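RECORD TYPE: inverse folding
INPUT: C-alpha cells
STRUCTURE:
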C-alpha cells in the first residue's frame, strides 16, 4: 500500500519544458512514474523529448486530464506564476497537486489553499517548497531521489527535504511505504496530521517517522493528534536544537518566538504523546530500527 500516490497514478508536470521541470521529469520517468503529459500553453500540441521518451504537451490541466485521465500534477512553475498554476489545477479538479516551487509569496499560498477549500477540498495540495511524495517502487512525484531506498513498512512525513533523504537512506534496508515532504513554509497544504492519519489507515505502514523543525506549533498539534488517534509507533526528530532565539532558520516557517516553537518544547510535547524523539537524525533512525526489529 501507499498513501496519496501509487503505481496507478497518472502524473502530469506543469512547467515540464522549463529546465527544472525537464530535469526532474527525466528522473521521475527513470524511477517508473507514469508521466502522461506536460502543461505549457505556449507549446500545446507538441511533444517534449525527455531522454528519448516523447511526452505530449497540453495547453491546460483540464485538457491534459481529459485526454490522459491524469490524477496528479507536479508543479515546477516559477514563483510569480505558481499561484495561477495551482489554481488552474484546483479548478480542473485534479486529485493531487504537488507544488515543488520554492519562494512562493505566503499570501499566494494562502490564496490557493483557501481556493482549494472553497472548491470542496477535491484537490490535495502537497507543499509548496517541498520535495514531493514518493511510494518507492510504485511512483515518485517530485524531486526525491528514487534510488536511496526501496519499498517497505515505514511511513515518513517531513518538513525538511534533506532530512527526508537522510532518514530514507539510513533506513533503506527496511524500506518505506511512502515518504511525504510537506515543506517548511508558514502556509502549506498537507500537514503532519494529514499524513499521520493516512499512515494510520494504511495497513502496510507499521511504523511512522515524523520530522519537524523549530517554529510554529505544527509539531505540538501533531503530538496532540497522535495521542488521541494514532495507535502505530511513531518516532520523531525536530530540526533546530541549536538555533538561536528570534532567528529565522532556513525555511520561512522556522522562527522561534519566546519558548513557543523551540525544539525542546516540541520534543517534550511529542514525548508526552508517546513518541520516541531522537536528538540527531541518526539516533532517530536507530530508534526506528529498534522498534521494527523488536
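DESIGNED SEQUENCE:
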Amino acid at each position: 500500500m501507499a498513501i496519496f500516490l501509487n503505481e496507478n497514478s497518472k502524473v502530469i508536470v506543469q512547467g515540464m519544458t522549463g529546465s527544472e521541470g525537464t530535469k526532474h521529469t527525466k528522473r521521475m520517468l527513470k524511477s517508473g512514474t507514469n508521466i502522461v503529459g506536460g502543461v505549457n500553453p505556449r507549446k500545446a500540441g507538441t511533444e517534449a523529448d525527455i531522454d528519448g521518451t516523447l511526452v505530449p504537451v497540453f495547453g491546460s490541466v483540464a485538457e491534459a486530464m481529459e485526454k490522459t485521465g491524469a490524477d496528479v500534477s507536479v508543479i515546477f512553475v516559477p514563483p510569480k506564476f505558481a499561484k495561477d498554476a495551482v489554481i488552474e489545477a484546483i479548478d480542473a479538479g485534479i486529485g493531487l497537486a504537488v507544488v515543488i516551487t520554492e519562494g512562493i509569496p505566503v499570501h499566494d499560498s494562502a490564496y490557493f489553499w483557501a481556493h482549494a477549500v472553497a472548491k470542496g477540498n477535491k484537490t490535495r495540495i502537497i507543499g509548496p517548497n517541498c520535495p514531493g511524495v514518493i511510494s518507492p517502487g510504485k511512483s515518485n512525484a517530485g524531486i526525491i531521489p528514487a534510488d536511496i531506498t526501496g519499498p517497505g513498512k515505514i511511513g515518513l512525513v517531513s518538513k525538511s527535504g534533506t532530512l527526508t533523504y537522510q532518514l530514507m537512506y539510513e533506513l533503506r534496508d527496511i524500506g518505506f511505504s511512502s515518504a511525504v515532504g510537506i515543506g517548511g513554509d508558514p502556509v502549506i497544504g498537507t500537514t503532519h496530521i494529514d499524513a499521520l492519519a493516512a499512515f494510520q489507515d494504511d495497513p502496510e505502514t507499521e511504523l511512522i517517522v515524523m520530522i519537524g523543525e523549530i517554529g510554529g506549533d505544527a509539531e505540538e498539534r501533531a503530538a496532540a493528534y497522535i495521542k488521541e488517534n494514532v495507535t502505530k509507533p511513531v518516532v520523531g526528530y525536530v530540526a533546530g536544537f541549536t538555533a538561536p532565539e528570534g532567528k529565522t532558520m532556513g525555511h520561512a516557517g522556522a522562527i522561534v518566538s519566546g519558548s513557543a516553537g523551540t525544539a525542546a518544547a516540541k520534543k517534550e510535547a511529542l514525548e508526552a504523546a508517546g513518541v520516541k524523539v531522537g536528538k540527531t537524525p541518526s539516533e532517530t533512525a536507530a530508534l526506528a530500527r529498534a522498534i521494527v526489529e523488536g
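NOTES: The first helix runs from residue 19 to 30.
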